[in-house]
Specification:
Structural class: mainly alpha
Strand order of the largest sheet: 1-2
Distance between the termini: 62 Å
Number of strands: 2
Shape: elongated
Number of domains: 2
Number of helices: 6
Radius of gyration: 22 Å
Length: 139
């Protein structure tokens, strides 16, 4: 469901001026509830993703959910979000290293500021091209 605690970037959904939370969703008829949820998902740009995972992954998700006091789907969303951010950062750093992208382009792709990208490059010893002293030695 689309609610601020699950999707912090989502606006609070109202119906007839009333704010809806978990507690008053059951007061809706089945049809109203379905309509409300579909409307909410459209507003929040939330889509359903179905995937098959092995039993160990389910056990791991459940263990994390218990530790975090969250439900399995919330844990899966957080882990998926983190993995995507990590993948984008790794891709951006590879593109910088190969001189295919500028630091600014890579930062935008990774969702970081220019200075954050410079910090990541420094922390991971990623070079964005030849240093002036390297050019002097080869010349």
């Amino acid at each position: 469901m689309c609610q601020p605690k699950h999707f912090p970037n989502c606006p609070t959904i109202t119906k007839s001026g009333e704010v809806y939370h978990d507690s008053n969703l059951p007061n809706l008829s089945h049809g109203e509830r379905d309509t409300f949820i579909r409307s909410c998902m459209r507003r929040c740009s939330v889509r359903v993703l179905t995937t098959r995972v092995d039993d160990q992954t389910i056990r791991d998700l459940d263990a994390i959910a218990a530790d975090e006091r969250a439900d399995r789907s919330e844990v899966a969303r957080k882990l998926l979000d983190r993995s995507i951010r990590d993948w984008k950062l790794e891709k951006a750093l590879k593109m910088i290293s190969s001189s295919a992208w500028t630091v600014r382009r890579a930062a935008k792709f990774a969702g970081l500021s220019y200075y954050q990208m410079i910090e990541e490059m420094s922390a991971r010893d990623v070079d964005s091209g030849p240093r002036p002293e390297d050019l002097e030695q080869s010349g």
